[in-house]
Amino acid sequence: MKRRIGFTIVYFLIAIALILFINNLVSAPKHTEIKYSEFKVLLGEGLINNLNITKAIIHGELTDNAHKRLFELREIENEKEFKRLQEFNIFRVVRMEDPNLVRELGERNIRYSVTQEVTWIKTLFPVLLTILIIVVFWSYIFRRMGASSEGMMAIGRSKAKIYVEGETKVAFDDVAGVDEAKEELKEVIEFLRNPQKFQMLGGKIPKGILLVGPPGTGKTLLARAVAGEAKVPFLSLSGSAFVEMFVGVGAARVRDLFSQAEKSAPCIIFIDEIDALGKARGISPVTGIDEREQTLTQLLSEMDGFDTKKGVIIMAATNRPEILDPALLRAGRFDRHILVDRPDLKGREDIFRVHIKKVRCSPDIDIKVLASMTSGMVGADLANIVNEAALLAVRRNKEIVEMADFEEAIERVIAGLEKKSRVINKREKEIIAYHECGHAIVANMLPRTDKVRRVSIIPRGIAALGYTVQLPTEERYLLTRSELLDRITVMLGGRAAEEVIFNEVSTGAKNDLDRATDIARSMVTSYGMSEKLGPLSFDRGRPLFLEVPWSAPKEYSEDTSRKIDEEVRTIVSDAYEKARTILTEKLEKLKMIASILLDKEVIEGDELKKLLGQ
Ligand code: ADP
Ligand code: MG
Ligand code: ZN
Q1: Domain interval for residue 378
Q2: Span 217-244, mean pLDDT?
Q3: Mean per-residue pLDDT, 506-510
């Protein structure tokens, strides 16, 4: 933006200079300006001739002597001035009311003519020229704006921004490491290939599919691959393209997009980075909310009115599903969510294979090693590494890319990512592995906890370094005291494992501690689950989240407050002791499972059970 402003100013200055120059050219004197008194003298002495008289001005020829006479009249001694005077043989004088002029001219026998002067051309010409230049200048600027972004010329014409690809030429094989997502999308491809058949069989196909995952994991690529596999047109648009500075433009775009899709069905509509458009309404009351709301409403109504039977699938991608407007996620809209997660070890191997195919590599490349060196990276990072390695090889005048090039490329990419703090060093990885194993083992050893579905040390999001997914066995609305206690124990299992193994704890357990403490406090203050305090509720009437906690009125004494704190502490530290006991008993298992996790990065629930001998 800054550059464009600079640009505009330069052009503006050039235009002004041009105008001044032309103005100068037009009005540049081609005659000597004389005073009326001088004119009268020259006339009286017969030194002028061939006059042209108009209503306001008299032009005429000066004889040689006239110059000299003028020289005298003006008492000029300067040689230069004299030269300048002599430059023109034509004089110009502003006419005055002079009734004797015609008689005098007759007496002197001076030839003269009278013209009805058309002055407007002369006065208007610079103005017209200026307008012309401004028009040319503006249209040029607009054309530039139109070329780079959406200019004013393109209001409501969304075709410029919708990318329609007849065939994306991307195959499923080009996307690796996201097998689960691919599996889920196969059905969609089947449908797009033959919508009629699907209808006859009565198959129900989702209208909207939301791809969710961190940046660079291949969401856009995956959407294009679906179109490529189904061999249908791919209409894509970025969510930010909907959000325009003019009210109503976004909504017009949406309408346009859907009518275009209807024409080219079966096809895929893909809205990339839908969070730009679908931010929950009311989050930012300052900017553009009306416009976004209008656009969003239009999108929702188009989606509702759209019949999947026509063979149009609407896909969208986001890396921030939590900020999306809930209306977008409701049934009949983007109700199918597909997770496109960071790849695990095996996934990274596959992705490397896809990209390495495109460069000439030495046969000694060990993809397994490369994959193990790139923990936590996403597909885009890996593609970047392959590219970087190829560039390094070229720079070294090599014919083929060797392992050394890859290693250096990985180092470079890691250095870049470290600035964004997404890469974890070896020691940290070890701590995370033990921490997650702690959660998982404690969860598996306690009877009343949700089953562990997966343990992973692949970083997810910004905050979580690793994660343990527990799957509730059934939908729960009520939890008993012992279930809550078990839950707290599992949460503390991570920290307990760190302490058991390293005799030291890290900062990684903050979130766990927060949640455990929250549950414990609720047990005491809301659910009446503490024996010491009895079945009393201490948080009645406290408006949750609305007020800062310390300003909330307390309905109990300082003494009770202290007792509550004590009870919370007892609950948490008892649970912690329990977790530690479990892990100390299972120390060998903990070590074994952690080392497997370090190796494979992911352990599925069933495997964990087997390893624990259950
Ligand atoms: P996202 O849309 O999730 O941010 P992209 O689809 O734009 O990610 O990925 C950018 C590039 O990274 C792709 O063009 C591709 O070269 C590479 N890439 C990302 N993920 C994968 C993957 N799973 N398999 C192969 N290549 C990938
Ligand atoms: Mg993308
Ligand atoms: Zn944890």
Answers
A1: 345-414
A2: 85
A3: 80
